[in-house]
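## retry 2 of 3
previous attempt timed out at serialization; input unchanged, resubmitting
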Amino acid sequence: MKQKVLLVDDEKDIVEFLTYNLEAAGFEVAAAYDGEEALAKIDDKTDLIVLDIMMPKLDGFETCKRIRAMKNHERTPVIFLTAKASETDEVSGLELGASDYVRKPISPKKLVARVKSNLRNVEAAPKRKKPRVIERGSLVIDRDKYSVTIAGVEKPFPRKEFELLYYLADNPGIVFNRETLLKD
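## retry succeeded, writing output
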């Protein structure tokens, strides 16, 4: 079964060119031309998303945030493919949950290699069902409600901090470096 890539860019010629090359490499490709259309086209068969940042209606950063909030797509690889070349933009993209950040222009062979690499990383990751509620002593983390309770008192957490706390509590006794935490 072919792996499905959702390619999102407002430049139709880039979408056509990259679609041709991804299909030649054996991928099924769906195309979208803005963030809203991308969100509408994501389904359970979407294995990876290549996403531009500068698009009409909904930019790539906001689209990525919404993808990460979708059930079943919290860990779907997202590759930003963009002309935005600043370090700040790259860091922002990776902190939003992108698995890779690639600057335009890029050769089709290099993009195909990046897509394959990101898909391999997903396949290599252990598949285990994440608990919906984690209890560690007086700490209770409820993933469905996005709530954290410490000694019976609910504490508000911003989304990123909640995700980090959940990840660390779900992997007790393991020390992670910054790169691993940013990637996951």
